[in-house]
Amino acid sequence: MNKYVLSVLVKNHSGVLRRVSGLFARRGYNIESLTVGVTENPKVSRMTVVVCGDEYIVDQITKQVSKLVEVFKVEILPAETSVFRELLLVKVKTSKDSRAEILEISNIFRSRVVDVAADSLVLEATGDANKLTALLKMLEPFTILELVRTGLTALQRGAAVFGKEEKEKSDA
Q: CA 36, CA 48: separation in Å to the nearest integer?
């Protein structure tokens, strides 16, 4: 089974997330990752949904989601022509002896320190899933106290604007 990233433009109002995620649940499809945020048009939100399946299953999901009244457009984002990112916050146990080494690892992965305490550091990192997983693997020996990862967010590369016509229609 392959992973597919769907970009979904929806009306920005209450209940839309429940409707879309409910459709997945009713059909027995698992959502691997889901992020939602408002677009440059405050009346439109963009959902990035990661699902596993074969081409037939993903085609069925796309068709079913497209039928929802609140949905303007659905598109599968190809990995070759898209940018994918996640955000990671990780709290690592530190001591006087380990702090410098943790900061060095943080610099290598271009993460930022967002909180410092006597016995811990909170790091913020963005990147693709492989980069964040590699960072976590490097931090494991220092004891990871807490971590949280956002779901995947994605945009297509280049000048094309996904759903431009649909966004403009929602302004009318």
A: 6
- Domain count for the chain: 2
The CA distance from 2 to 104, in Å, is 35
pLDDT digits (tens, 9 = 90+) for 122-158: 999 999 999 999 999 999 999 999 999 998 999 999 8
From CA 157, how far away is CA 72, in angstroms rounded? Answer: 21
Using CA atoms, how far apart are residues 54 and 2, in angstroms rounded to an integer? 6
> Quick one: which of 12, 63, 61, 9 has its CA closest to 32?
61
Query: Could you tell me which of 31, 169, 136, 145 has the C-alpha nearest to residue 94?
Result: 145
Q: What's the rounded Cα separation, in Å, for the pair 2 and 31?
A: 13
Domain span including residue 42: 2-82+157-171
Could you tell me if 166 and 72 are in contact, meaning their C-beta atoms sit under 8 angstroms apart? yes
Indicate the pTM of the whole model.
0.83
- Asked whether residue 95 falls in the same domain as residue 65, the answer is no
Q: How many CB atoms lie within 10 A of CB 166?
A: 15
CATH number for the domain spanning 35: value is 3.30.70.260
